[in-house]
Structure formats: structure tokens, C-alpha cells
Amino acid sequence: MQRDTLVFDLINQELERQRHGIELIASENFTSLQVIQAMGSVLTNKYAEGYPGRRYYAGCEIVDQTEQLAIDRLKQIFNVEYANVQPHSGAQANAAIALAVLQPGDTTLGLDLSMGGHLTHGSPVNYSGKLYNAQFYGVVKETGLIDYEMLESKARSLKPKLIICGASAYSRDWDYKRIRAVADEVGALVWADIAHPAGLIAKGLLNSPFEHCHFVSSTTHKTLRGPRGGVIMLGKDFENPFGLTDNKGNVRMMSSLIDLAVFPGIQGGPLEHVIAAKAVAFGEILTDEFLVYQQQVQKNAQAMAKAFMAKEYHLISGGTDNHLMLIDLRNKNISGKKAEQALVKADITANKNMVPFDDKSAFITSGIRFGVPAITTRGLVEGDMQFVVDAIDRVLMNADNEAEIAAVKKQVNDFMTQFKLYPEL
Ligand code: DSN
Questions:
Q1: How far, in Å, from the CA of 168 to the mean position of ligand 1?
Q2: 344 plus 224 within the same structural domain
Q3: 332 given a catalytic annotation
Q4: Is the CB of 222 under 6 A from ligand 1?
């Protein structure tokens, strides 16, 4: 068959874009070449509905082993009793937890999307807001920190079945113990979505949710630096004190309910090539090098936050504990949308983001979110953050000046040549 040059030329263009630019989307990263190779392997040809040793198809002896490796390594990383590595994405992992735990109309309590939460935590445009009675807590206006008092008072008055913690644009750590305490008081289950900070949690650099939360979900491609995908974990395979049942009305262990919710609940054949790539990434996470990487992520985020604040940018919560920061641009007289568009012209990629109590819509926004996992993988260290912040500031202060932006783009491209990306490709 003729090589599809159209598609492969585009893939090469994307590789060049990734090489030349400064990637600051907080949810992106650059996987290792061996992760990419596992994803682009013959395992994509295999159907394997079911779980290792319990499949609906023949010929699964090899993929049983790659999937079991992924499970075992993930359990080792987080020291947990149960892991499901089949969710195709974070959103799928979250849907499976909801399916396992909730009935339509049940009440959930999660962080408001406009305050840093996620679509799948109850947004009205998502199944989670359409099927369930989704209620929300927020952050304290003055501090930008999670409003635990609001969370507790809403938990007491609404008596949700499920309390959701986790965020897409929150730069501080979580008090899982406090959330569990109120959950126990009102008879709720607790689910932590650690898609963003998972890599830092894996290496003990942030609080662990596992001893306090009944369910934990994550993506695998953000700070975990694996292939795009999702996972679900249980710190302890609880014996289901809440009497949750399967479709036949049988009370089952939590792990069985999650397995059933992923397959056949919401998915069919698992992506065994991606699961093999997850196993590769999990092997990398178990190394000491990954600890050094995550420590550098935290150092870079803090150096970047400091450099922004020195230029009088308003960071929500006044700094960061993790890999990202959220900036309110209102004192700089530029919207998130315009900032994003100007930055991309200079080959700096970041995303506009609503800030808490935003007066602009989600399409315009007052804020922008920056994350450092990808540039840290490229090899940038604290001393490089001043260059990055200076370049961003120059673009934002000259957002209508094409010549100035072109000059920054040249500087950015020259600067990034020293940080190699996939030299083998
Ligand atoms: N909310 C997306 C992000 O953090 O970029 C991921 O779903």
C-alpha cells in the first residue's frame, strides 16, 4: 500500500511544532520514545474484552501479560490494593466511577468548573451534570483556596452520595483528610480525581489521597508522562459498606463494581497498545530519575510563579504547590483569549482559563493557565524560567504589535534548540 504522505507530513509538522515551541499547557507532557513505540505497536490489532485471564476473545496470552504488568506497576507506584488500567481517558475513568456509585438523580458535590473544577465533576453540559443532581463548592474569594467551610456546610445540608475532590486549574494541595471527615459524618463516598498532580503524588511530593478517598482516578498523560489514557485505583478494596450493587442487585467488593463499570459498563475492547505504553511509563515512574524530574517540576513552577509575581501578575492563591499556576490578567488589561492567541504566534502554547469569580465567559476568560511538566521534560531548569516569563510578558504587553511578537518568536525558537526533543525521529 502507498505510504500516506499526507498524514505523515502532518505528523512531522507537529513534531517540529513541539520542538520549536515552549509548551506550557499544564495537562500536556512529552512521553519517552519507548512509550510512543509501545503505542505504535501491533498490540493495536488485538481484541481483548474482559480482564487478564478472563477474556471474551482467544489469543490474549500476551496482552494479558502487558496489562498485568501495567496493573502491578501502578499498584506499586501508589501502594494501592486495586488498579484498573483500561479507561481510554480520564473522562472515561470518571464516568465509570459515577456509573459504579450513582443512580440517576443522586446528589454529587464537586468543585465548580468556573473555580478550577472539571467538566466530569458535574458540569451542566456534561453527562455528570445531566444525569445527577450536581452541586458545587468553590474557593474563597480573598485567598483563592478551596472553601472547606462551604464544602462542609453544603455536605451537611445536601447530604450528597459522592463528594468529588480534584481540579484542572488549582495550584494548591488538597486536605483529603478533612473532606473524608465530613463525608463520614453525612454518609458520603469520596472520590479524588488526581489527573493533574498524580506525578507529584506518586513521588510523595504532595498529600496522598489514598488513605482517605474511596476512589481515585487519574489520567496517565499529564504529570505521569505516559500515553493518553485513564486509570482508576482503590487505596483499599473496601468491602462496600454502602451496599452498592451490580445490575443483578448483588452487593460486591468495590473493585468488582469498578471493573464491571469500566467493562462492560462504558467500554468495549481495551486499547491494549495504550495499556502496554502505560506499563512502560509506569516502569519509568518507579525509577529514581522520575523523582528528580518531579522535584524539578515543583522547583520550576515555583521559580516561574516568583518571576510572574515580580512583574505584578496576579496569581490565584498567591503561588503554587504543584506543577501549574492560574493567573488573573485583569490588572494587565488583556483577556485570556487574546493572551492565548498572541502567545501562540510566538510559539508559546498555553490555555485561556476562567478565574474564580470571573466576569467573562468561558470563551473569553480573564485568566490564563501555565504548567511546567512539558518544559521540565525538555530539560529547562529554574534559571530558565526568567527567560520564559520575560518572553510571555513581552508578548502580553505587545499583543497587537506583530513585529514585536515575531521578534519574541525568533528568540523562543533559538532558545529551544538547546533542548532536544526526540532526536532519534
Ligand atoms: N481539563 C483538561 C485540562 O486540564 O487541560 C483535561 O481534561
A1: 6
A2: no
A3: no
A4: no
